[in-house]
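Appendix C. Worked example: Substance-K receptor
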Amino acid sequence: MDSDDSIQRIERDLRATLLPMLVTRDSLEDVNETTGNQFQQPDWQVAMWALAYSLIILVSVTGNVTVIWIILAHRRMRTVTNYFIVNLAFSDVSMATFNTLFNFVYALHNDWYFGLGYCRFQNFFPITAMFSSIYSMAAIAVDRYMAIIHPLKPRLSSTSTKVVIAVIWIVAVLLAFPQCYYSVTRFYYPRTVCMVDWPDNYGGTHQLSYQFAVILLIYLLPLLVMLVTYSLVGQTLWGSKIPGEASDHYHSQITAKRKVAKMMVVVVVTFALCWLPYHIYFILGSINRDIYKQQYIQQVYLSIFWFAMSSTMYNPIIYCCLNQRFRAGFRHAFSWCPFIKMSEEDKMELQHTHTFRVTMTQSLAMDSQRN
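Step 2, the predicted output written as structure tokens:
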């Protein structure tokens, strides 16, 4: 195999991964004459990117760990929806901890320092965590749909919820397995690269089928499910007026359901917007490989990757801003700070349970009485 063919194979293989490693023909054609690294950035630029990515890790880990503690430490918070939120928070904090930092370091200089084992894990885990995150959101959407549209039908029990979460993770592992199986590390002087070495050429059946299947399964399909379910939920909750003679419990129940639905819609929209540029980037790259040869592609990729990874830090902020119980839980968790005070109302939000059940049948009965 001559030098030109070798360069073409390197370029092809590096682009066969869901995380392109920014190697181009121009960067390799003089490989025997240079000891430098064209991906080396000025110190000030590295510092700025390091600060930006550190913010994601700090906020995501602190916020999501606190969310998990709020739910598991307070009996009132242990609902079906919140168990899925725990799974979502766990996926996000795992992504921030095990993926964000290492991919950032790799994208800075396009030099893999962490060995074959972590290369396999690094290509495997992001898809697993993304699948778990978005299908936790989809499960919440379906649960909200059943609770509001079909309130008389049986709801998921605590055990059933845990089984659904386990199934989500099993399917996620199976979907991500090819990324792990075909991952390799190769040394191309003066760098080591981590890539997914698909059996056929870049743009072949294996790579393209897998890439579009992943985009369909971890982005388009669950978003479609959530669009339909939340549209129906919104039509039910906001499309009809609350009867004037309805009880206070009914009013508070509908208000609470509206707040939960609004909060989860914000979570879903935030996730969709953060990951949209990421998926567009790889779709365009599959259509036109020259995108990866552009002069500023490294900065573009770092920006897109930051925006995608930032999705892991927004949810705790959304919960705190839009949900009174989570807000009380955050005040409890950070009550050691001198400027944060926990009120008696906050304690009651976390400790006391109001048990009442109002069905949509009552609403229909009230409507018929008015007519």
